[in-house]
C-alpha cells in the first residue's frame, strides 16, 4: 500500500540565524522551535548571492538561481542613469505552489513578497512590496480583516530610536496577527501546502543585532517578548495546519543569515578615486560634486564618535531626521545631497566606464557611453577586479556572474559582484563620506546588523528522524525537496538538489 502524501508547512523567518536562535532556545524563549530541533532535522543552508530578501525568497520559491530569474536585488535598472524600480515579480517562472496548484493540490501563501495575488488553487495574501496589495481571491482581504476584527498590518515603517516602544509593539502585533490569520485561513481553505513569512525578524535584527547578540541578561524585555511571540505564532500555525489531519512535515527556514555590520565600503567613491567614474567639469574624484558642506558634515559626524556627549547628541539628531519626507529634506538642506540618484546628473556619462547602482553588491559597466567598445569593457572588468582584489583596506572577493550562477538570464546583472570582509563590511552606493572605506560604523548609522550567507533549516514531522547536519544545504534545494516530499514531479528547470530522503517517508 503506498504511503499517504504528506502535507507541508513552511514557516519563513526572514534573516533567521542559529547564532541568535540557539541562545534563545537554551534560555527557554523558543520552546516550540526547540521541540522541532530536538525531534527533527537541523542544518544550516546557504543563501544565493547577494543574500538579499527578494532574490533569496524568489530563488527558494522557484528553485532557480538569480542568474536564471534575472533578479539580483530589491531593485533593477529602469530607464536612464540613476533610475531604478522595485523588482516586479519572479514570474513567468513558477513557484513551488504553482506546480502543486496545477495538480489540484490546495495551497496557501501568506505574506510572501509579491505586489499582488494571482489565480491559484487556494489563496495568496501578498506582503512587503506595497501596502494593501490585492489578494487572491480578491475578496479575501475584506473577509479576513472582518474575521480578525482589524485591518491587516502593513510592513514596519522606518525605525527611529525615539519610537522604539511603539515600533517594537507594532512588530509584535504583526507577528501575533499573522498567527491568527494563518489559523483562520487553515480552517477555511484546508491547504495541503502552506507558506507563512515573518518579515519582522529581519527588520529587528538589522536594528538591534548588537543587543540581541550580546549577553542574554542584557537583551531588552521588548525583544524577548517579540521572539516569544514568534515562537507562539509558529506553534499556533502548525497546530491549525495539522488539525486538517493526515501526515505533515513542518519546515522552518530563512532566506539568509545575519551578523554584525562592522564597516562600510563606498563603492562609487572608490570607482571615482580610481578613475572609472567621472564627474563633470573636470571634477576627478567627485569632491566638488558632493560639495564642501557634505564633506565637512561627514568629517564632523565621524569626529563626534570620539566623545560620549557629542556621540549622544549626534545620534539624537540623526534619529530625529530619519524617516519622513520633511525630516529628510531638512537633513539634506544642512548636509547636502549624497545619494547616487541625486548625484547621477553630475556624473559625466560620456567618460564614465563603471558605477555601482542599483544593486549595492554590484559594479555595472556604463551602457550609456556609446563609444565604450567590447574590448574596453573586458579590459575594464579585468582592471577593476585586479585593483579590488589587491585593495589593502579590506578583503574583497570579486565574482563575475558566470562564476556563481548557473542561469544565463544576465541582462540586468552587474558585471562584477563584491563580497567584502565575508559580508562584515556592507557595500554602499552613496557618496556620504569622502573616503571609500569607513572602517568603524558610526553609531548614528542605520542599524547594527547585516545579512550573512548561512540561513536556517529545521524540519520535523511524520517520517522525519532526529538528525544534525553541519554541511550547508542550498536554498535552491528546498523547492525540489518540497515537491518530492509531496509526490509531485520535479520540473527540469529547478537547479537545486532534493534532500527529501533525509525527511524519510510517512508511515503507511
Task: Provide key terms for this protein.
single chain; 508 residues; alpha/beta; Alkaline Phosphatase, subunit A; 2 domains; nine-stranded mixed β-sheet; four-stranded antiparallel β-sheet; 37% helix
Question: Would you kindly provide a written description of the structure presented here, covering whatever features stand out?
Answer:
With 508 residues, this protein is of the alpha/beta class. It folds into two domains: 7-258 and 451-503, Alkaline Phosphatase, subunit A (3-Layer(aba) Sandwich), CATH 3.40.720; 263-446, no CATH class. Helix content is 37%, strand content 18%. The chain has 18 helices and 20 strands. The chain has helices at 18-26, 31-39, 53-62, 66-69, 96-102, 140-148, 164-189, 200-212, 221-242, 267-273, 287-290, 292-304, 308-321, 325-335, 340-343, 374-389, 401-404, 478-485; strands spanning 7-13, 41-46, 75-77, 84-86, 107-113, 122-127, 193-198, 248-253, 257-260, 263-266, 354-355, 362-365, 396-399, 416-420, 425-428, 437-438, 449-452, 454-461, 467-468, 473-474. The strands form five sheets. Strands 1, 2, 5, 6, 7, 8, 18, 19 and 20 form a nine-stranded mixed sheet that branches. It has a four-stranded antiparallel sheet with strand order 11-12-14-13. A three-stranded mixed sheet has the order 15-10-16. Helix 7 (164-189) runs parallel beside helix 9 (221-242). The longest helix has 26 residues, at 164-189. It is globular, with a radius of gyration of 24 Å. The protein starts with 6 loop residues before the first strand and ends in a 23-residue tail after the last helix. Residues 326-336 have low confidence and may be disordered.
Amino acid at each position: 500500500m503506498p504511503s499517504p502524501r504528506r502535507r507541508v508547512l513552511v514557516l519563513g523567518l526572514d534573516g533567521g540565524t542559529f547564532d541568535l536562535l540557539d541562545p534563545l532556545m537554551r534560555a527557554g524563549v523558543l520552546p516550540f522551535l526547540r521541540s522541532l530541533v530536538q525531534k527533527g532535522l537541523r542544518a544550516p543552508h546557504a543563501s544565493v548571492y547577494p543574500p538579499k530578501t527578494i532574490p533569496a525568497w524568489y530563488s527558494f520559491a522557484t528553485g532557480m538561481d538569480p542568474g536564471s530569474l534575472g533578479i539580483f536585488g530589491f531593485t533593477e535598472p529602469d530607464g536612464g542613469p540613476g533610475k531604478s524600480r522595485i523588482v516586479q515579480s519572479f514570474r513567468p517562472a513558477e513557484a513551488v505552489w504553482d506546480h502543486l496548484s496545477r495538480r489540484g493540490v490546495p495551497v496557501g501563501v501568506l505574506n510572501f513578497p509579491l505586489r499582488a495575488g494571482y489565480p491559484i488553487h487556494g489563496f495568496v495574501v501578498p506582503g512587503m512590496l506595497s501596502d494593501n496589495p490585492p489578494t487572491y481571491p480578491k475578496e479575501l482581504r475584506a473577509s479576513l480583516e472582518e474575521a480578525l476584527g482589524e485591518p491587516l498590518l502593513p510592513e514596519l515603517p522606518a525605525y527611529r530610536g525615539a519610537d522604539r516602544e511603539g515600533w517594537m509593539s507594532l512588530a509584535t502585533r504583526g507577528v501575533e496577527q499573522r498567527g491568527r490569520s494563518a489559523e483562520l485561513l487553515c480552517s477555511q481553505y484546508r491547504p495541503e501546502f502552506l507558506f507563512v513569512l515573518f518579515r519582522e525578524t529581519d527588520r529587528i535584527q538589522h536594528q538591534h543585532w548588537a543587543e540581541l547578540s550580546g549577553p542574554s541578561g542584557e537583551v531588552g524585555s521588548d525583544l524577548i517578548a517579540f521572539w516569544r511571540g514568534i515562537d507562539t505564532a509558529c506553534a499556533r500555525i502548525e497546530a491549525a495546519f495539522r488539525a486538517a489531519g493526515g501526515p505533515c512535515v513542518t519546515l522552518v527556514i530563512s532566506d539568509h543569515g545575519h551578523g554584525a555590520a562592522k564597516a562600510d565600503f563606498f563603492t562609487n567613491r572608490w570607482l571615482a578615486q580610481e578613475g572609472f567614474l567621472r564627474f563633470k567639469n573636470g571634477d576627478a574624484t567627485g569632491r566638488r560634486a558632493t560639495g564642501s558642506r557634505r564633506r565637512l558634515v561627514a568629517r564632523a559626524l565621524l569626529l563626534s564618535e570620539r566623545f560620549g556627549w557629542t556621540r549622544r547628541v549626534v545620534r539624537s539628531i540623526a534619529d530625529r531626521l530619519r524617516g519622513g519626507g520633511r525630516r529628510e529634506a531638512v537633513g539634506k538642506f544642512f548636509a547636502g545631497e549624497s545619494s547616487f540618484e541625486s548625484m547621477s546628473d553630475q556624473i559625466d556619462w560620456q567618460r564614465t566606464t563603471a558605477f555601482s547602482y542599483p544593486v549595492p553588491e554590484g559594479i555595472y559597466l556604463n551602457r550609456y557611453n556609446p563609444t565604450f567598445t567590447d574590448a574596453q569593457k573586458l579590459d575594464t572588468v579585468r582592471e577593476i577586479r585586479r585593483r579590488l582584489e589587491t585593495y589593502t583596506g579590506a578583503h574583497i572577493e570579486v565574482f563575475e556572474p558566470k562564476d556563481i550562477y548557473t542561469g544565463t538570464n544576465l541582462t540586468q546583472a552587474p558585471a562584477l559582484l563584491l563580497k567584502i570582509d565575508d559580508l562584515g563590511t556592507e557595500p554602499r552606493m552613496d557618496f556620504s563620506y569622502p573616503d571609500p572605506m569607513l572602517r568603524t560604523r558610526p553609531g548614528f548609522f542605520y542599524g547594527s546588523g547585516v545579512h550573512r550567507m548561512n540561513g536556517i533549516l529545521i524540519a520535523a514531522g511524520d517520517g522525519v528522524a532526529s538528525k544534525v547536519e553541519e554541511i550547508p544545504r542550498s536554498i535552491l534545494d528546498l523547492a525540489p525537496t518540497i515537491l518530492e516530499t509531496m509526490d509531485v514531479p520535479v520540473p527540469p528547470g529547478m537547479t537545486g538538489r532534493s534532500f527529501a530522503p533525509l525527511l524519510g517517508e510517512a508511515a503507511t
